[in-house]
Amino acid sequence: MTHETVPLYGGQLSRRVTIRDLRTAKERGERWPMLTSYDMYTAEIFDAAGIPVLLVGDSAGNNVYAHPDTVPVTVEELVPLARAVVRSTSRALVVSDLPFGSYQLGPEQALATSIRVMKETGVQAVKLEGGLPVVESVRRIVEAGIPVMAHVGFTPQSVNALGGYRVQGRGPEADKLIESALALEEAGAFAVVLEMVVAEVAAEVTKRLSIPTIGIGAGPDVDAQVLVWQDMAGLRGGRMPRFVKQYGDLRGALVDATKAFADDVVSGGFPAEEQTYH
Ligand code: KIV
């Protein structure tokens, strides 16, 4: 099997996945999984499990830093997390988000932040949110040799302007969304995230683009699916968005382990002889 034909997930690529691999996977009609990661252990586990793309998302805001949403996240907060994920992986293509405020001033700021993130973290690509208003920034970053993942539909950094967590692409919004995705591809983006997009519109975008589409709440007819790992593995408590499927109950497992440890300490069961030095 040549590198051109090794499946992205389940194949044994002995090097990091590249944006070229993602394009050939699209040509083969292959679907692939993507997860967020913000730390060493999850990065190691997801890399060993063969997840081909890991995103150090600004969802660290509400999954690591206890911010209410992604808006307050800074480059200074994301850089150490991205660095840890890169150091803990050998195979996944690692993408870092550009946080809110670090690229909205225009192409020069977007390029400066991207260069900083690439140099300080070792990630292989950056991601930014938005449609037509960021097309020139995407072009500028790509022309400088930095791969860019785009993100349209519901864009969490604009949650205040969008009026909350609302599904995108309904009715007349659909054409604008498709036009944005096409323009981002033309500007050089290597993939586009479609978040909370009506399934039929996501399917149409996927058909029209030659770069992969990555859905999160965008239905089944996209090239890849991404979830925030704490949602996927059941670490987060509370109400989940409709698009989340939980594949584990890490929160329950951690509650049980914590209680067992605490009970043992109180009863004198820990440490036992096996954990004691003489
Ligand atoms: O920040 C993030 O985790 C994301 C994904 C949800 C796509 O942007």
Automatic annotation (TrEMBL):
Keyword DNA damage assigned: no
The places in or outside the cell where this protein is found are: Cytoplasm
The cross-references to Pfam families, in alphabetical order and at most eight, read: Pantoate_transf
Keyword line: Cytoplasm, Magnesium, Metal-binding, Methyltransferase, Pantothenate biosynthesis, Transferase
Gene Ontology cellular-component terms for this entry are: cytoplasm
The annotation note on the cofactor reads: Binds 1 Mg(2+) ion per subunit.
- Residues recorded as binding Mg(2+), renumbered to this chain, are D58, D97, E129
Primary location class: cytoplasm
Reaction catalysed by this enzyme: (6R)-5,10-methylene-5,6,7,8-tetrahydrofolate + 3-methyl-2-oxobutanoate + H2O = 2-dehydropantoate + (6S)-5,6,7,8-tetrahydrofolate
Residues at which 3-methyl-2-oxobutanoate binds: D58, S59, D97, K127
The record's PANTHER family line, in alphabetical order, gives: 3-METHYL-2-OXOBUTANOATE HYDROXYMETHYLTRANSFERASE (PTHR20881:SF0)
State the family it belongs to: Belongs to the PanB family.
Protein name, entry field = 3-methyl-2-oxobutanoate hydroxymethyltransferase
> What organism does this protein naturally occur in?
Jiangella alkaliphila
Q: What is the lineage of its organism?
A: Bacteria, Bacillati, Actinomycetota, Actinomycetes, Jiangellales
